[in-house]
Amino acid sequence: METLTIGTKTLALDADGNLANVNDWTEDVARELAVQEGIPTLTPQHWTVINFMRQVFTKEGDAPSIRRLTKESGVDTKTLYQLFPKGPAKKAARIAGLPKPKGCI
Questions:
Q1: Is residue 69 part of a domain?
Q2: Is 45 part of any domain?
Q3: What is the span of the domain harbouring residue 55?
Q4: Looking at 1-105, which runs of residues are DSSP E strands?
Q5: Can you list the residues of the chain whose pLDDT is less than 50?
Q6: Of 18, 21, 63, 96, which sits most exposed with the smallest number of CB within 10 A?
Q7: Does the residue 47 lie in any domain?
Q8: Which of 42, 76, 71 is nearest to 94 (CA)?
Q9: Is residue 104 flagged as an active site residue?
Q10: Total-model pTM
Q11: Choosing from 6, 13, 20, 104, which is the catalytic residue?
């Protein structure tokens, strides 16, 4: 199993490179994961998407798909791709500390 070290913490990753334990997530972990994904700074719009994903996951047990993100998060498709280039649902889920959404390749 892969791991990620942030500061003094070593976190386990799943086969997709996402956190193996969603409870290991913190905002600092999110910032580090974002940097690794090529996103140097998380803006308020990034946090809107991240928090929406975490709320849906907490309530339903699955990360939302890209379609659901665009319909319910308040962030349109074009903006999602600008915020999280090359796979917004997958990248946003990783940064949010969640498993890859089921519909993602």
A1: yes
A2: yes
A3: 3-95
A4: 3-6, 9-12
A5: none
A6: 21
A7: yes
A8: 42
A9: yes
A10: 0.91
A11: 104
